[in-house]
Amino acid sequence: MRKKKKKKIKITLVKSVIGYNKKERETVKGLGLRRIRHSVVREDRPEIWGMVKKIPHLVKVEEVEE
Fold first, then answer.
1. Model-level pTM?
2. Which candidate in 24, 32, 33, 63 could, as Cys together with 13 as Cys, close a disulfide (CB 3.0–4.6 Å)?
């Protein structure tokens, strides 16, 4: 039997968090983003998408197949 390929998403911080409220800064930190143009690859899960939807003005999301 074949294993299913888990979908992944690549999240990139494209804008500084300076000047945004504490919740938005903590969401960025919770995703593992540290600085502008820093990218992380996460599983395509509802929890991650919920975090991304809170800060769409700060991040860029791309689908990645691994």
1. 0.88
2. 33
Q: How far apart are CA 10 and CA 43, in angstroms?
A: 9
> What's the CA gap between 42 and 7, in Å, rounded?
9
Residue 15 class from Cβ within 10 Å (0-12 exposed, 13-18 middle, 19+ buried)? middle
Domains and CATH numbers, the chain: 7-65 (3.30.1390.20)
Encode pLDDT of 27-42 as tens digits: 999 999 999 999 999 9
H or E stretch at 13: strand 7-13
Are residues 58 and 20 in contact, defined by beta-carbon separation less than 8 angstroms? yes
Provide the pLDDT for residue 55: 97
pLDDT, residue 1, reads: 62
